[in-house]
Amino acid sequence: MRDLAHIPSLLPSNDASAPSVAMALAQRAAKGDVQATQELLEMLAPRIAAVVNVVLGRGNPDADDVVQQSMIAFVQALPSFRGECQPQRFASRIAARTAVASRRRTRSRFARHDDLVEVDSLYAPADDAFADKRRQLVRSLLEALPEEQAESLTLRVLLGWTLEGISTTMGVPINTVRSRMRLAKEALRKRIEAEPSLREILEVES
């Protein structure tokens, strides 16, 4: 299977916040500084919202709730932040995990998924409909994967992270990330074999 990471990331390419400022705020927030926590949330809120929109798709009715859940989860996780990665990455990982969990709950409630949900046009080119559908199908495939595999694939495919970045942010060896990616791709291959029509859309080889 061709590396699915060729799918372009939908996140803004430049992070407007200064990493050093965010790191200083995160270190203070991790120690319980309420003011620093508030300033950090204000700084990272656009990124958290962007990640949620990438994973759920633009116009998803649960997006606002998932953004709030992600911000709460981020604040709750701050005491464990040790500065191994940038706060932006730490927040993005939590938002991605929260959004994937939301998709699983929705799938469980309705026992079906609409593959034609509108994709986030804020970050995707207006004429890139084919790539948009491909990303939406990848989102639906994530729901069937174990949590750690789904999270790794989300960071790699939908957010465009490197394997090294995933390894650092998740706090696991890079070989563990590679293993999770391999298992995820094997699961996706089985899904594609069961539904041949997905092969062309996902641009994978036989």
Describe the structure.
The protein has one domain (4-202): RNA polymerase sigma factor, region 2, helix turn helix motif (Rna Polymerase Sigma Factor, Chain: A). The chain has 9 helices and no strands. The protein has helices spanning 19-30, 34-56, 63-77, 87-110, 129-142, 147-158, 163-170, 174-194, 197-202. Helix 6 crosses helix 8. The chain is globular and about 55 Å long.
Give a quick rundown of the structure.
The model is unreliable at 1-10, 12-17 and 110-127 (pLDDT under 50).
| Structural class computed from helices and strand pairing | mainly alpha
| Helix content estimate | 55-70%
Say what oligomer this is: single chain
Largest pleated sheet:
none
Count of helical segments?
9
Query: What is the CATH class name?
Result: Mainly Alpha
Alpha-carbon Rg, integer: 17 Å
Rough shape? globular
How much of the sequence is in beta strands?
under 5%
What's the rounded overall pLDDT mean?
78
Query: What is the third-level CATH name, the topology?
Result: Rna Polymerase Sigma Factor, Chain: A
Question: How many structural domains in the coordinates?
Answer: 1
Unreliable stretches (pLDDT < 50, length at least 5) are 1-10, 12-17, 110-127
